[in-house]
Write a structure and sequence with these properties.
By secondary structure, the chain is an alpha+beta fold. The chain folds into four domains: about 100 residues, Trypsin-like serine proteases (Thrombin, subunit H), CATH 2.40.10.10; about 100 residues, Beta Barrel (Thrombin, subunit H); about 90 residues, PDZ domain (Pdz3 Domain); about 90 residues, Pdz3 Domain (Roll). The chain is about 20% helix and about 30% strand. It contains 13 helices and 25 strands. Strands 5-4-1-2-3-7-6 form a seven-stranded antiparallel sheet. It is elongated. The relative contact order is 0.08.
Length: about 500
């Protein structure tokens, strides 16, 4: 009887398969091969291991090696704009002694139609895809009729086309057709930046291409009035005209910011757009050419310590919802005026600028989790993100006769008639309208002004003058009174402190 041949059992096969998977993972990691999503395949993401905060990121790096390695990833951008300008016309119908010397040519010169001339400007950018996709500032390529990209590696010039642009974030995606694969700048994680960390700026200041400057992160989250989503990285790495659109690198060679703005006459004060904000819209720029932002339909205001106290809170954290548009996503999700939003889609909301930026970068159609404080208790709501165009300007204020002002508050009101409401551009006739405010009164110091519509006092509705008189009498007994007013198309809460 022949001995039975040994075969491979199920356990053996499973073990071999498991070992093969481990070997494959090891090889993949060694060769830096990863399964990329469509978005990650478009640009080069920095390896996760490089994004970990280390003490080395706070130490002076080898700038010589960094400059050699990173400079080829940066490009110079020159643009041409055609400007139409009417010539100076001091005397359009001039007839005088000059006619003796120049005749009709003199008047023809000063009355000719608009002339066109070309204007050149310079900027910077950096390669985010080997096939020629380049990221820069919107203001660098705005209204350009021709865009020329000069590579740092071989000084070759290429004509570029605009793929997508976003004026609000001041970024643009352009593309060239290079002769070979381009060196790509890896995009890092700007959220990991620390104040005091070393950074490197490379660009084309004053046309001096390939300039390298170093400094530190001076501050984060700067609001400088450049746009609705200000959240700049401030750095003392020298940034000058021509640096716009260039990269701000960390010491690991990852792009953490897009050099965008400077303060005129300032020394060591430059501002960069965090690269994470750009990454959130890059795919839309590539695929659609523009950015569609999220929107929920609320008006918000800063939660001051006085307002926080009026709402029975110990600290002023979050943003106060002053109004919710009926039928809009926030209304459908259950958000109400007077709610204090502390978290949106898993991200903490601590100050006024956090919510607009977070909502804007949340994909439309997503059900976002929203945490609010209502009557001192936390509630969790879900809002489906929508989209909408810009809001229109507020209506004009009315002109009506004053009534006798309240002595302790210093303001006078009158009924909100349908005629007055129509002139204000509103349909709701509940409330009273402020007809005058004494500048040095509690109402004036609180910011109330003529034309405001008072909707609530101390969270109680004001439907008419009778309600107002009753609630004001009650409010005057307290240290503070919480007013909800309608100003134009926006509602805001105001704390008034009656005088004793």
């Amino acid at each position: 009887m022949e001995p039975r041949k040994k075969g491979f059992g199920i356990k053996t096969v499973a073990l071999v398969a498991f070992i093969s998977v481990l070997i494959g993972i090891a090889i993949t990691a060694r060769l830096d091969i990863t399964n990329l999503t469509g978005a990650q395949g478009f640009w080069k993401e920095a390896p996760p291991s490089a994004a970990v905060k280390t003490d080395s990121s706070l130490q002076a790096p080898n700038f010589v090696e960094l400059a050699k390695r990173l400079s080829p990833m940066v490009v110079n951008i020159s643009t041409t704009q055609v400007i139409k300008e009417r010539p100076l016309v001091p005397f359009p119908e001039f007839k005088g002694p000059f006619d003796e010397f120049f005749g009709d040519d003199f008047n023809k010169f000063f009355n000719e139609p608009n002339r066109e001339f070309k204007r050149q400007s310079l900027g910077s950018g950096f390669v985010i895809n080997k096939d020629g996709y380049i990221l820069t500032n919107f203001h660098v390529i705005e209204n350009a009729t021709e865009i020329i990209v000069t590579l740092s590696s071989d000084k070759k010039d290429y004509k570029a086309k605009v793929v997508g642009q976003d004026q609000k974030l001041d970024i643009a995606l352009i593309k060239i057709k290079p002769d070979t694969d381009l060196p790509v700048a890896p995009l890092g994680n700007s959220d990991d930046l620390q104040i005091g960390e070393w950074v490197l700026a490379i660009g084309n200041p004053f046309g001096l291409g390939g300039s390298v400057t170093a400094g530190i992160v001076s501050q984060k989250g700067r609001v400088i009035g450049a746009g609705p989503y200000d959240n700049f990285i401030q750095t003392d790495a020298s940034i000058n005209p021509g640096n716009s659109g260039g990269p701000l690198f960390n010491v690991r060679g990852e792009v953490v910011g897009l050099n965008t703005a400077i303060i005129a006459g300032g020394q060591g004060i430059g501002f960069a757009t965090p690269i994470n904000m750009a990454k959130e819209v890059l795919v839309q720029l590539k695929e659609k050419g523009k950015v569609t932002r999220g929107w929920i339909g609320v008006s918000i205001q800063e939660l001051t310590p006085e307002l926080a106290k009026s709402f029975g809170l110990k600290e002023a954290k979050g943003v106060l919802v002053s109004s919710v548009t009926p039928g809009d996503p926030a209304d459908k999700g259950g958000i109400k005026a007077g709610d204090i939003i502390t978290s949106f889609d898993g991200k903490p909301i601590t100050d006024l600028g956090d919510l607009p930026r977070t909502v804007a970068t949340t994909p439309p159609g997503k059900d976002a989790e929203v945490k609010v404080l209502r009557d001192g208790k936390e509630k969790t709501l879900f809002v489906k993100i929508g989209t909408k165009s810009e809001e229109e300007a507020a209506a004009a204020e009315p002109e009506e006769k004053d009534t006798a002002p309240d002595k302790r508050l210093g303001l006078s009101v009158q009924p909100l008639t349908p005629e007055v409401a129509k002139r204000l551009g509103i349909t709701d006739t509940e409330g009273v309208i402020v007809s005058s405010v004494k500048p040095d009164s509690p109402a004036g110091e609180a910011g109330l002004r003529r034309g405001d519509v008072i909707k609530e006092i101390d969270r109680k509705p004001v439907k008419n003058v009778r309600d107002y008189s009753k609630l004001v009498t009650e409010a005057e007994k307290n240290d503070v009174a919480l007013f909800l007013i309608l100003r134009g198309n926006s509602s805001i809460y105001v704390v008034v402190k009656p005088k004793g």
